[in-house]
Design goal:
The chain has 726 residues and is mainly β. 7% of the residues lie in helices and 54% in strands. 50% of the residues are buried.
Length: 726
């Protein structure tokens, strides 16, 4: 095929009514534009990207703006354009497109944890922090005693950056083996913008769903001051029944959010960004059931996720460096009810009522060198003050309510420096972070437990060293060593009541040795991103259980190390104008280096060579899409994609006729196929018809002890969506 010569005229071709010109434009977008830019920025599988000409992608993964192609980290990026086209769901559904990402859920509170490269927490809630850092803009969304994250709306995002591998030097605690950055669009003082989307869908055997989203950007003072506002509403129809309550489609949900951003540019060197995000999600029950779509509970199990998030960033540019201050405040709570009778073996309902109000203040001061000389450096300081409560009542199991309080006050100093040499063909980067955390746990009341206060302190120094080879703008290779860590924590109130004097869990550390390459072939037909790594995870925080008053309560123990090789590979092929196909595969060989033993009562929970909890060996995805003009004013796009994850296991101690032994539970192997067809006009209006879970896969996505508490994907869903931008 001949490459059109005048690819820079793509925007003109697209706006004309000449179909031949538009076919030429598609060819430019698929091949010529890549050659003109020198590289196609690797964004992972992007089934919604079509084949339109995209500007080169820039990211801030290393806390400065850089070309994605040049950053020596295994990164996937989901663009805002891709996310706006997402027909249903939020950020968690979008992340399933990314290689090496997996998710597991927990029935207590309908909670979700996100895992990168198989490094997962032992349990989503109540027994330790996350292994993956999760940021909303510059604010870390990290709770004290929970590893869960919210499923926020994905409309009007700038992008989502997924950093695979330890990021302890720049991002600190909880970035044990990766970071996810949800980056919203800033207010823009240079232009007015309005956009909206709406859709309806029907689910097999369930209630209908609908959504409506809108975003507006208003310049208040041209080029100086602007306001951006985003409003989201989604009603999610249920499909799980509760026969004992004569309740059909009991797991319906309603999600609402408001976001505001204010941008002020008093001068060319000073920028001030203020933000506020208000999220209110509620559900009638969790998305779990037996294979027939039933929950056995005889009681209601509603819950809510609600948070207010406030952020402020001030950036000032000097001739030789920039200075920025990022401040965040998170006010979070997740009250819920859950039937514990299936967990304890009781024949009568045991309804746990819990809440976890948490307030987190963060401040980061960052200094970045300016210019493009042979030296680049970053230095900064970070402070975090988190305070949370765990309040729960379990009538019939505990003699009274239990209220406990946790706090974590931490600070860190970090720096990173890069030296280029050999005419900028090579770069050597080194970084270091010092971290200190003081963790406090108190029992406030409860009556049946004595009051106590436990204090523990944790310190850590984490390094990073990277050698990068940049032979051309279209190819990057790197060799790196990096370290991530997760802070330790005190044991929970019930664990200490069952085993007085139980020591806090120590911090765990992950060492990663990695070689990677990414780029685009000379003809622009193939883009790739590949990495091979070896992990050594020391003092692994894992879930144990202690018998208290006839039921097991979680405790966190430092197990032996885990290690293994792994790889991530993403390929995207552009064989013809308007046609794009690709896929990704992730493998994690992470396995225990020795047995994990629970001392009280004595149980060998896992043996040497077993996988750690909730850790899949394989993840993968494939996609294909084709875009072509349908008429002089309409373009059509057909897309088919699929995601896969191998099984995950959960090992816990459990009573049986012979006493107490280890029990192993396994999930299924989710294979979800989606398809959609879009019709777009030249004035930025799009109509979409889509099918999710095309094959109606109904297996287990989690590995719980009771099948009726097993999470399953939403059954086959068919919907339509309309989007318009002005």
């Amino acid at each position: 095929m001949n490459i059109p010569q005048n690819c820079v005229e793509f925007s003109h071709y697209k706006s004309t009514g000449n179909r031949a010109f538009r076919r030429a434009a598609l060819a430019c977008a698929g091949i010529g534009a890549m050659l003109a830019s020198g590289a196609l920025a690797q964004t992972g599988p992007s089934p919604d990207s079509g084949n339109a000409a995209e500007p080169e992608i820039f990211v801030t993964a290393q806390k400065r703006e850089e070309r994605l192609q040049k950053v020596p980290i295994s990164i996937a990026v989901l663009s805002g354009k891709t996310l706006d086209k997402q027909p249903s769901g939020g950020t968690l559904e979008a992340l399933l497109q990314v290689p090496a990402i997996s998710q597991t859920n927990n029935d207590a509170g309908n909670l979700t944890q996100v895992t990168i490269r198989g490094v997962a927490p032992g349990v989503p809630s109540g027994a330790g922090g996350p292994t993956t850092g999760y940021y909303i803009d510059a604010v870390p969304f990290a709770l004290i005693r929970a590893a869960t994250v919210p499923n926020t709306n994905s409309y009007d995002m700038a992008r989502i950056e997924v950093l695979r591998g330890p990021q302890g030097t720049l991002y600190g605690a909880s970035a044990l083996n990766g970071v996810i950055r949800i980056i919203t669009n800033d207010a823009d003082p240079s232009k007015f913008e309005f956009k909206a989307r709406g859709g309806v869908a029907t689910t097999s055997g369930g209630d209908p769903s609908f959504r409506a989203d809108t975003a507006i950007n208003i310049p208040l003072i041209e080029d100086k001051l602007a306001l951006r506002a985003v409003a989201d509403l989604e009603s999610i129809g249920g499909w799980v029944n509760q026969p004992a309550r004569n309740k059909k489609n009991a797991n319906s949900a309603l999600n609402r959010s408001l976001r505001f951003k204010l941008a002020a540019l008093p001068s060319d060197d000073l920028r001030i960004d203020l933000g506020a995000w208000f999220e209110r999600d509620q559900w009638d029950s969790g998305d779990y059931s037996d294979k027939n779509g039933n929950q056995l509970s005889t009681v209601a199990q509603p819950g809510k996720t609600k948070f207010n998030l406030y952020s402020g960033k001030i950036t000032y540019n000097l001739p030789f460096m920039s200075i920025s201050s990022s401040t965040g405040y998170l006010d979070f709570d997740q009250p819920f009810s859950s039937d514990f009778s299936y967990v304890t073996g009781y024949t009568t309902p045991i309804q746990l009522n819990a809440s976890s109000p948490t307030k987190v203040f963060t401040e980061e001061l960052l200094f970045n060198s300016a210019g493009s000389g042979s030296w680049r450096w970053s230095a900064g300081a970070f402070y975090r003050n988190a305070r949370g409560r765990v309040d729960f009542v379990v009538p019939g199991l505990l003699p009274g309510p239990l209220y406990s309080r946790d706090s974590s006050e931490s600070y860190a100093a970090f720096g990173q420096i890069t030296r280029t040499f050999a005419d900028d063909t090579f770069e050597l980067t080194g970084g270091l972070r010092y971290f200190h955390d003081t963790s406090t746990t108190e029992v406030l009341s409860g009556g049946f437990l004595p009051a106590y206060k436990a204090v523990a302190k944790f310190n850590k120094v984490t390094p990073r060293l990277t050698l990068t080879w940049l032979p051309s703008p279209a190819f990057t290779a790197y060799l790196s060593y990096s370290q991530g860590f997760r802070s330790g924590l005190n044991q929970g109130a019930l664990a200490l009541a069952a085993s007085p004097g139980l020591l806090p869990a120590k911090a765990d550390t992950l060492n990663n040795y990695e070689v990677g390459a990414k780029g685009t072939t000379a003809d622009g037909l193939l883009s790739f991103d590949a990495a091979v790594y070896y992990i050594k995870w020391n003092d692994v925080q894992q879930l144990g259980q202690i018998l208290y008053n006839g039921a097991y309560t979680p405790a966190v123990a430092n197990g032996p190390s885990a290690s293994g090789m792994g790889t991530d590979l993403t390929l995207t092929l552009h064989p013809a104008a308007g046609f794009q196909l690709g896929g990704s595969i992730g493998y994690s060989g992470l396995k225990l280096d020795a047995d994990i033993v629970q001392e009280t009562p004595y149980v060998v929970l896992a043996k040497k060579g077993d996988r750690t909890a909730n850790s899949p060996a394989w993840t993968g995805s494939v996609f294909a899409n084709y875009t072509a003009p349908l008429s002089d004013s309409l373009d059509g796009r057909l897309n088919i994609s699929a995601t896969y994850r191998s099984e995950v296991n959960l090992r816990i101690s459990q009573s049986n006729d012979n006493g107490v032994a280890a029990a192993v539970y396994s999930s299924g192997k989710p294979l979800i196929v989606n398809a959609n067809f879009d019709i777009s006009t030249h004035d930025n209006k799009t109509f979409s018809v889509y099918v999710q879970n095309l094959t109606n896969w109904n297996g287990l996505t989690s590995a719980p002890a009771v099948e009726s508490l097993s999470f399953r994907p939403r059954p086959r869903t068919i919907g339509v969506q309309f989007e318009a931008k002005f």
